[in-house]
Amino acid sequence: MCTPAADTLSAQSTAPDIAAMARSHRSLFLGVRRRPARPAAAGPMMVTLSSGLGGLIDGLAAHLPDATVHRGAAVTQVTPALTAPGAAPGTGYRVQRAEGAAIEADVVVLTTPAFVSADLVAPVAPRLGTLLGAIEYASVATVCLAYPRSALPTDLAGTGFLVPPEEGRLIVGCTWSSLKWPHLADDDVVLLRCMVGRRGDNRWLTMTEAALVRRVREELEEAMGLAGKPLEQFVQPWPQGMPQYLVGHQARLDAMSAELAQLPGLFLTGSAFRGVGLASCIADADRTAEAIVTARSARTKAQALL
Question: Is the pTM of this model over 0.85?
Answer without folding.
Answer: no
